[in-house]
Amino acid sequence: MKNLFLSLLLSSFVIFSANNSAIAEEHTKTKKELKKEMKMEMKKHPRILKAIKELQDVLEYLEKAPDDFGGNKAKAIASSKQAIQDLKKALEFKAKQVPSKK
User: Which of helix, strand or coil describes residue 26?
Assistant: First the structure.
């Protein structure tokens, strides 16, 4: 449960940071370009990728668990799904940005 809390905290921080960073001018990227950029972002942010994988593992465990963890299971499942979604959106946001010109 400690890892779940840390992962949820991390996702909240990442989303807050992404929303408060300067937004680069965007253009429409092709699906192929976006897929390539997503892979690059995953390599640049291995902790986010690890958090996604850990949350997916926790989610699978919770969904199969017979215990309801004192009535917290449903909320933990929903929170884990939301955290995974938010982390993926954070990476997608970075992947959609146009690289800064130097």
Answer: strand
How many angstroms separate the CA atoms of 27 and 98, rounded?
A: 7
Using alpha carbons only, give the angle 71, 73, 77 rounded to the nearest 5 degrees.
Answer: 150
Three-class DSSP category at 97: strand
DSSP tag of 102:
-
Closest CA to 94 of 9, 27, 13, 37: 37
pLDDT digits (tens, 9 = 90+) for 59-84: 999 999 999 999 999 999 999 999 99
SS3 for 82?
Answer: helix
Contact between 29 and 37 under an 8 Å Cβ cutoff? The reply is yes
Is the entire prediction scored with pTM above 0.85? no
Banded model confidence at residue 101, pLDDT cuts 50, 70, 90: very low
What is d(CA 99, CA 25) in angstroms, rounded to the nearest whole number?
Answer: 9
Q: Is the dihedral of CA 83, 37, 42, 21 positive or negative?
A: negative
